[in-house]
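Reviewer 2 asked us to include a model.

Predict the structure of this chain.
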Amino acid sequence: MLVQVFVVGAVMSFVGSIPPGTLNVLVLQMGLQKKFKQAMRFALAVALVEYPYAWIAVEFEHWIMSSPQLTKNFQLVGAVVMTSLGIFNIRTTRRPTNFSVKFQESGFVKGLILSLLNPQAIPFWIAVTAYLKMQGWIELNSTWQIHSYVLGTSVGTMVLLTLLATMANRMSDLMNKNRLYQFLPGLVLLVLGIVGFVRYFVHI
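Predicted model (structure tokens):
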């Protein structure tokens, strides 16, 4: 059962990380800029933060779900983060500052900070875990099972981000011929942030 919950957690984390989001878009950007080592440090930080967030989702599922406002706030925080990063990315691409250059060049610290500021993984894992339990694919009746499952979520995230960084790194020569790619990550984050705001205010 430990192996099963680990594999299920890893697969669901891999699949769940595919849709465009703040963190995987930034990994793609680093890969396109041929900053593969930086992207790997960033991915490691993201995977490490995924562990406690998934654990919180499992352990405090009933408490979080009993407060719909708390779940909405997760979405609002995510929208704020994505919109802010989108604007920051576009502005610094046009006019780099010392702070923006240092922040963009950081890997692990950047991933750690942005992951902590993007707690949307918690409601995601609440929903996914509830579905997996209902389908009978996992049982989380012991501490070992819980941590095996949560470890799987971190590994799945790391594998997906590594794959994205590798693919982007290989495509970088083609993409670097077009200056538009430098603005693309910022535009994607900005659009995702706006969509997040719309969803938040529509459901108020």
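The radius of gyration is 17 Å. The chain has one domain: 2-202. We have added this to the supplementary material.
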